[in-house]
Amino acid sequence: MSGDTPAPSPSSLSAATVVVHAGRPPHEPDQPLNAPIMMASTYVAGGDLEYGRYANPTWTAFEEALGALESGRALAFSSGLAAVSTVLDLVGRDALVVAPRHAYLGSIGQLGDLEARGRIKAALVDIADTAAVLEALDSSPDGAAILWIESPTNPALEVADMERLIAAGHDVGASVVVDNTFATPLLQRPLELGADIVLHSVTKFLAGHSDLVMGALVVRDDQLYDVLKGRRDLVGAIPGTLETWLALRGLRTLHLRIERSQANAAELVHRLSAHPAVTEVRYPGFGAVIAIVLDGADRADLLTHSTKLWVHATSLGSVESTFERRRRWKGEATTIPEGLVRMSVGIEDIEDLWSDLEQALRPVAG
């Protein structure tokens, strides 16, 4: 018999179960356990799909899984920046966007580009300074169009007073966008706090294996979903089918990866805080990203070039541990210390990770 027992509602299950089961085909004889890769650009007319720029069953499976995790409806995009651009395209001319001064460089870069071309006005603030954010929201007579939140921020790891800022944004008529890439829906669900749009660089923790580039938006409002999907259809910011399938496969182990990498990060924070070469350790108390500050750029560069397990690379959120000195990027904010090293902690054995770091820190401390 098939279909006699209804599937449990995602709302009745823990996130660790939802991440494994959401977005799967129905439990019926001869159905595949995993959503298949649908390699099709064209469909027979008369149904709901029509053309490959509008829909794909492989996208749908990933979007169902992520939507269930974030308590909303998800849309997959070709990259995190494509998702950022889709949201900012909705901002009217000369409208104000309030955003963190420390954030993903792609988001800051798009805001700067739009402001330089006279499209929008951008106010960059310390997102952890609630009073400063409230002042920026009130700085335009017409109010702000968007309050953009990252929490924790990239790479400074500041934490916003999310509930208060979301309420304040709505008070001035702003839509609230939260980049939830660092926290993931396992540690933070902004839609449940009232945010309008949640953004992810799927490339990072959600996919988790450094093998694809993808982005996503998640919303609760059906009208907003239709608007965002319409923009995706219009500009063609769609993900590849193989990338989406890989992202869904990676998503299945998110809870295990976060559990291990977060435990590793907490232990490294404890050990790094006592190391004489480290002048500051930044960690929000959750997640798998740490920032340490060394005494100047030279020492930070020496560290990132002296390890065997830790990989000097700019991305994050994967099974392997990566790190880099962020000010090596010319677009990074000057308020980020020259010696700040952002560390994305992976799932390796903690003693191996520490041994590799410790031997690289010795000459830095000397």
TrEMBL record:
EC number of the protein: 4.4.1.2
PANTHER family per UniProt: CYSTATHIONINE GAMMA-LYASE, TRANS-SULFURATION ENZYME FAMILY MEMBER
Cofactors that this protein relies on: pyridoxal 5'-phosphate
Residues annotated with N6-(pyridoxal phosphate)lysine modification: K204
Family: Belongs to the trans-sulfuration enzymes family.
TM annotation in the entry: none
GO BP, sorted A to Z: cysteine biosynthetic process via cystathionine; transsulfuration
GO cellular component: cytoplasm
Entry keywords, A to Z: Pyridoxal phosphate, Transferase
Catalysis performed (reactions): L-homocysteine + H2O = 2-oxobutanoate + hydrogen sulfide + NH4(+) + H(+); L-methionine + H2O = methanethiol + 2-oxobutanoate + NH4(+)
The protein's name: homocysteine desulfhydrase
Keyword Transferase carried by entry: yes
Gene Ontology MF terms in the entry: cystathionine gamma-lyase activity; cystathionine gamma-synthase activity; homocysteine desulfhydrase activity; methionine gamma-lyase activity; pyridoxal phosphate binding
Signal peptide positions on this chain: none
Taxonomic superkingdom: Bacteria
